[in-house]
Amino acid sequence: MPTSNNKESRVLVIIATYNEAENIENLILEIHKINPRFNILVVDDNSPDGTGKIVMDIYKKDQTVHLLQRKGKLGYGSAFIEGFTWGLANKSFDCFISMDADFSHHPCHISQMLEQTDNADVIIGSRYIKGGGTRNWGIHRKILSFCANIYSRLILSVPVNDCTSGYRCYNRRVLENINLTKITSNGYSFLEEILYYCKRQNTVFKEIPIIFKNRKYGKSKINKNEIIKAIFKTPALRLFPKKALKKNKPN
Ligand SMILES: Nc1nc2c(ncn2[C@@H]2O[C@H](COP(=O)(O)OP(=O)(O)OP(=O)(O)O)[C@@H](O)[C@H]2O)c(=O)[nH]1
Ligand SMILES: [Mg+2]
User: Fold this and answer.
1) Are 66 and 17 in contact (CB under 8 A)?
2) Which residue ranges form the domains of the chain, and what is each CATH number?
3) Residue 2 pLDDT
4) Count of CB atoms within 10 A of residue 1's CB?
5) Is any atom of ligand 1 closer than 6 Å to the C-beta of 221?
6) pLDDT digits over 24-58, tens only?
7) Which residues are bridge partners to 135 per DSSP?
8) Quick one: which ligand is closest to 42's CA?
9) Most CB within 10 Å of its CB: which of 75, 197, 217, 223?
């Protein structure tokens, strides 16, 4: 737990994991190379490859590393809902970074994100602004991701070029204003859903360019079902908005 009031110790990096044993230890090391005071929370879904055990062993030596071990695979979105809820319960944290475990979101961008926290409420690691991009993606993946972004952006009318990037930094106030128990996406459409509720509270967004590299180790968990769910979820958010904002300030 953070013990002092300096900015670094108020940062909580949240990483959702399912079968990331080949990545998690290195990722934690790389994050702590940037700053050993960052707190890191891993939300693991009882990964059969022992990811949770690796994190538990690190925690025994380094108590800035935390583990939320869940019973089974409950989904990407639900992992972040639990992670944010855990972090918000500790008033010492005021800056919440979400990232993947597979190095597609390289920790080298964390400092650039934190530099923007005085100017913006939500900072997004973006593949679709100048300087950003993807590496080692096939043409299908490129088209899918590009179209998904345009689709989400138009339907949700969010002033963000990369609506499906999971590499983000949120300030506490924005998350506190969302009733996380009312978020209905357990899977990847969580990214669009929470972005929509950020937008509805007049959030200031800032994007910083990132190069998204395909994972070297481990397997992707995204599948066709998740993509189909996101296609339907996005317009549903506009048509049947749930009261997930605590102070409802529609925009
Ligand atoms: N706790 C938890 N984590 C998950 C779940 N599904 C995916 N993750 C994690 O969420 C992050 C993103 O998942 P990936 O499979 O890398 O998805 P992606 O980055 O969109 O797809 P790829 O580019 O193909 O890797 C990774 O750290 C996964 O381990 C889940 O059900 N529960
Ligand atoms: Mg990935």
Assistant:
1) no
2) 8-239 (3.90.550.10)
3) 46
4) 10
5) yes
6) 999 999 999 999 999 999 999 999 999 999 999 99
7) 213
8) 1
9) 197
